[in-house]
Design a protein that fits this description.
The complex is a heterodimer of chains A (about 70) and B (about 210). Chain A is mainly α. Chain A contains 2 helices and 2 strands.
Chain lengths: ~70, ~210
């Protein structure tokens, strides 16, 4: 996929810490973290727009919790 | 959308010659038209022949019901998905679709992002197990290579995962993927994963060819 563009991102210290931590834990670059975030956000938003819900299920208790997106 | 096109070479099984092909990082209308007007009739003929010979359905090509028009329409415009296609001799020879939002299960890379290969299919005339000899060889490998290269490009270090149809299990073992066993949550298909080290080994082996 060609045509990548560069942009400056202004993040707070806390946001930058989270970005650093995710980048280290997921073994991907900070750019890759943000690209993943964008993909996931778009996917979730598209499904919610279609009337679906995003649920998390506890693997042990099978308890389900709905994630509300604003 | 800009489509990246790489030139690759396939093997013409009948003549032993190499055939120039295009590997494209997209599935576009032209490929869907080929699927509809060329793959579908060819597959139908194969299925009719298998039925006539009394071959049990368990031995039929396991992707016979796949509908590429629906598969691509479902993910249209979503950044999470990407398609690949191989074209040669004026027609589409193979198609693949990947999901970029899933994470690894293998213990050494659990939770890390990877490329999940959702679907990979080669044209009916390129499949070795449908009676006649395949026309072109190397299409499936080219699509797997594209998926691993895409993992590298995304910064996922070549990590790759997939659920395999039983007829393809041996192929994925042969290219060095780890067989993590049957997945009861996914139609009991076997789940395979490739680590960064296995991806490096895969590329080294490909480079030696």
């Amino acid at each position: 996929m060609t045509g990548k563009r560069t942009m400056t991102l202004n993040l707070t210290d806390a946001e930058m810490r989270v970005l650093d931590e995710l980048s280290a834990r997921k073994d991907i670059t900070k750019t890759a973290v943000l690209r993943q975030a964008l993909r996931l956000y778009q996917t979730i938003d598209a499904r919610i727009e279609k009337g679906e819900k995003l649920l998390f299920e506890n693997d042990t208790t099978k308890e389900k919790a709905e994630l509300m997106l604003l | 959308m800009t489509v990246d096109i790489s030139i690759i070479y396939l093997l013409d099984v009948a003549t032993g010659d190499s055939v120039e092909a295009e590997l494209r990082d997209a599935i576009e209308q032209a490929q869907l038209d080929d699927w509809h007007t060329k793959w579908q009739p060819a597959l139908l003929a194969v299925l009719q022949e298998l039925a006539r010979k009394g071959v049990p359905m368990s031995q039929w090509p396991q992707s016979w019901h796949w509908n590429w028009a629906q598969k691509t329409a479902r993910v249209q415009g979503l950044l999470a998905f990407r398609g690949f296609s191989v074209a040669a001799l004026g027609e589409t020879q193979g198609l693949a679709q990947v999901d970029l939002t899933k994470t690894c299960r293998e213990s050494n890379q659990r939770g890390k992002p990877f490329v999940y290969l959702e679907y990979l299919e080669v044209a009916p005339w390129n499949r070795p197990k449908l009676g006649a000899a395949p026309r072109l060889r190397g299409v499936g490998s080219a699509l797997i290579t594209a998926a691993i290269a895409s993992s590298e490009d995304e910064g996922f270090k070549g990590r790759l995962g997939l659920h395999s149809l039983p007829q393809a299990d041996d192929f994925y073992r042969k290219i060095g993927m780890t067989d993590l066993g049957q997945d009861v949550a996914y139609q009991n298909l076997r789940y395979f994963e490739m680590t960064s080290e296995q991806a490096r080994a895969f590329f080294e082996k490909e480079g030696e060819r």
